[in-house]
Fold each of these.
Amino acid sequence: MSGLNGGYYTLFSVGFITFESHFVNTENLPCLSDYNWFLNTLPEAALVVGDSGEILIANEMARRVFKSSGDGFHAKHVGELIPVEKRDGHDNKMARFHASPEKETRIANSALEAVRGDGTHFAIVIILRQITLASGSYTLAICQDVSEQRYLVTGLRNELDQERMLARTDPLTSIANIRSFRAELERSIERLSRYGRHFTLISIDLDNFKPINDDYGHAEGDKVLKDVGDALKSGLRSGDFPARIGGDEFAVLLPDTGFDAAKQFMPRLVQTLENKMDQSKWPVTFSLGMVTFNEAPGRVDKALMLADETMYLAKRSGKNRAAMRTFQ
């Protein structure tokens, strides 16, 4: 394409914007003032930066984006546009750009921040290109304010995370629901099948819960269930997985836990549950069934059935006790 005074130059594009990038005919290169005029026709913020980082040109859109007051630009050095705590990362990216043979790269992402003339921070994407003018080579920086996009993306991500959490969580007790528990149990079965990593499953049923619902109403019954959920959250070890299976039935998965370790843990678990009931003065006890799996049960339903059968053995034996077994 024909350039200024009959020279020739190549073009490059950023989105819908096309920029002059490198003049082939060095006898007809534009000067900084010519380039300043060109940059002021662009709809994006643009800076021309010297080798030492000094800002030589800032177009009108750059003044708006960076909120520079008055006729000049509020920053003399490109580093002043980056928050102090982010400057090391920015300098490293700039160094990689200058070391690149193509001298063309997108150096920013949603984590890059810039600072405006009023001191506020905002998210920015910067696209760099080396340009050659009559007085030498410079860096052209096209700056895009993406703070609104980041805000929208963050909001959508938070909503998605909330939906995922709700899909995995029992809304009453704030511990895992049956769907989430089945998925975690399936992973434990898979680890046992492939690597021999045994696990223990505990089924928990509340004794004397029905009279509370009948005599005091379901609102009081819900308080009991919440207390059980709180006790399980506070009384388990890191890595243990409690869940409300349904109604007044709960379960706990103890990954990588053999029979002896689980047997030693059971009194502590029962004591935690009983203490919570005593604090709230609920006349509730617990029947528990504990099964340690040294051999994979094959299916999630079979594992849950074995734990339930063991729990009902404790219930038929007089309630307020635990029954324990292994599955070989």
Amino acid sequence: MTIHTGDYLLDHAKAWSRDGLGVALATVVQTWGSSPCPTGSQMVINAKAGFEGSVSGGCIEASVVSESLEALKSGAFEIAEYGVSKEMSFAAGLSCGGSVRVMLEVLDDALLAALSGPRPAVRIVDMRDGKWTVVRGEAAMGRLPADGDMIARAAKVLSTGRACIAEGCEGGDCFYQPLLAPYRMLVVGAVRIAQILAPMAAEVGFHVTVIDPRRAFSTDARFPETDMVREWPDKAVAKLGLDAQTALVALTHDAKPDDMALGLAVRSDAFYVGALGSKRTHASRVARLREAGYTEAEIGRIHAPVGLDIGARTPGEIAVSILAQVIAARNGRA
């Protein structure tokens, strides 16, 4: 399964490292049965027992933190196994009945730099001793030697976006971890819905940029942790670009800026295009776009009224419905 966590775990790790704290990385490398977090799920843990992320949804995090603290003290690499049995308590096992293997390693400067490097890439880890290499294209960099077969397998892993275990590493098992560029969400209109949507989208792995030339709307106080572009949408979207990992959501409810952005989006590779407005508003929008020369297929790409039909009325509810629809599109369900 492709994991969409964005860069927030690395951001926390970097901040802790700057503060002089040791940091450990915990990664789910294998699951059996019912497990709340799929292969590739991660946590970062600092030397004061602070942590971010999840490897089980809450069942084993306390144990993972405890073992990570030991790993930070010893510098040791470890594969820990957690499961459920009659003898195991909820504090140390998966209450859902599954089992999971978690890789624990010290997140030192070299590994942090490798994970923060250009993407896409694949990290290959020898599960016997923790040696790793990062493959970008045909090049590999790290202490683990990578032969042609390993590089070819890394390319396959990258094409699926799914972490996995495979043979290699001189006869031992290797863990292949895809390092993907984050999905992006361009939100046109620094309105109340955008204030709620932006942080939620960031939590599920989107790098969010809000676009609005209106200075009264696009203030840092209203969007303290979101990238802002204070330009008209036609210029901003052209600069930022629209690719197959980008969603565009038009929320100004103003024909001029919304149409600017939508016109570019429907002729791009963006995986999702949505626009706020009632059915009547969208009918007027469709007429304008037809008159401007857009085809029925292009206009038909616009999700409008935007969001899943959950009866949303408030800005918060609308934001939830939008994010749900975007996630569905990202996962091939819309």
Amino acid sequence: MNSLINLLIVDDRHENLLTLESLLDHPDFNIIKADSGSQALEKMLENDIALILLDVFMPDMNGYETAELMRSNKRTKHIPIIFVTAELAERDHIFKGYDAGAVDYLMKPIAPQVLQSKVGIFLEIHRQKLELEKKTRELNAKVRELEELQQQLKEKNKQLKTISTIDALTGIYNRRYFNEMIEMEWSRSKRNGSLLSLILMDIDHFKTYNDTYGHSAGDNALKAVAKAISIPLKRKIDTIARYGGEEFIAILPEIGQEGVLELGKKMMESVRNMKLEHKGSPVKDYLTISMGIHSVVPDDNINSIDVINAADKALYLAKDSGRDCIIVYNKKDGL
């Protein structure tokens, strides 16, 4: 059911108010009456008025003064006013009325058809305004809804990206993320002419560990090792990832061979300090890791794959040398 439209009629003569009220009688209208300018201003503040029919000449405060006060109030300044005035005697005041804010005039004596026609026009404009406001609110609600959905989508995409770059078992980065980061860091180091180091790690005799303690224990061991080797990495620019199976790899920008070797020793010590039992290992009676290291300043003669292969060769030699040790790649030594 539609709300009634509030019409305010203002006249100091009671009989004029009754006449206007009878002429404007309509089931869609709620007629509000005021017999003075001050009372009219009160009614405007108390009600949501669609249109005002305002008599020009009233004692104490005339129609012009009332209109000027209306225009000074934020709530009432945009309410349309139709001035009601004598057809001939007050014709000279028409321009003054428009200056005060009138949108139209009605001349006395009032012709019912003219009154109803003019009021109908302004009320149709009012309905269109209400409809526009409704559509605007609906549109704003849709915009807010779309913004919320967009934010939710952004969060979901962020979650999906996180899921796609994190190793589900260990909680560190996965090989996919490593592949992205090595290319980014390679390009950055090449552009800046700075060192880039890799550490490739492997848990010693991990197959034997799984065979001895079971795959569930093996999964727990992988998680523990991932946590242990992450502890020495303090810089935000360093990346540690699970490279595959029991292999892990670290990207260490802007650090040379001596620095990365020292860091590798700390990572190995962090794993040793867990004292995670490994009775099946011929190396130690607890879990250990082996490492291959390579440091390089990227240039046009090599690529990131060459560095990974070099670190892998160094790791292979570390395993061949008894494990639980670090080997630094050295091309001169035939690695």
Amino acid sequence: MSTIKDIAKHAGVSVATVSYVLNNNRYVSPEKKERVLAAIRELNYAPNAAARGLRAGESRTIGLIVSDISNPFYPDLAKACEDEAQKHGYAVHMINTNDQPERMRQAVAQAREGKIDGLIVTSALAADRELLQSLLERNFPLVLAHRRLEGLDADLVESDNFEGGLMAARHMLRLGHRRIAFMSGVAGSPISELRAAGYRQAMKEAGIDVPPEWVLSGEARYAASYERMLGYADMPPGERPTAVINMSDIGAMGVLDAAADRGLRVPGDVAVMGFDDLFLAAFRSVRLTTVRIPRYELGRQATELLLDRISDANRDIRRVVLPVELIVRGTCGGERA
């Protein structure tokens, strides 16, 4: 691996000159600068960003907090963060919390210790408000992405989750369903609350009262959603829901499998819908109707906001709401995608 001394020797300049070019902190004549840059290209030199950051009092690293790294929702979002960060010379350090408060505290400790220059939080819960507020009071760059947190004055990028719940329920109603269940997500998740509110609004517009057993938590996970659907499937045919909206595509897969294990036809006996539009939703063996969440754009805009906040700590707070889209496939009937 080439070193700064190798670059200097190859370009016929001093080590100090190479350092000036790399850090862009002193004037270097155009001719010498071009020789240094040519040497860097020819020797495939990769500057040590961490070392430069230590000298400058910054790490050139941003943190990305997610709730479940095994969830296929996050790769597109994380890739967008990394793509955008790399354009500006930053690395991304991912932190998986599993929605556990202790792991969130550990991530915040890294921020306080200066190991990262800013933080994108995709998994904020109400229990995290005080912790994240402590960072904002220190003027630490922080952006909420995907999950909002009421009462926290921070930059935010989110999808239109209320509209997603509204359009999902309205679609089921247009198909003639009246007994429509909504499987919510993690307790305290603003996303779950907003989507459930949209669902309830659509049901109210249709003049349908929602009994408590129609809104149960599937935790946006396969196993919990599978168990909830078994409970619905075992209800008398005249009482069980004829349509189920799940908080996530992963949870919807659990609903589909439980329906199959109880001998229910999809969409004949029960229509099923998810959220996210993960790659598996389009599999020919699945063809899941879902609400598409713009995951890559969530990550890209969150990183853009964070880097802007790092460069200008005093600018006004910005909040971005991204549109969602209904993707109609086979699990509700009326397939179009």
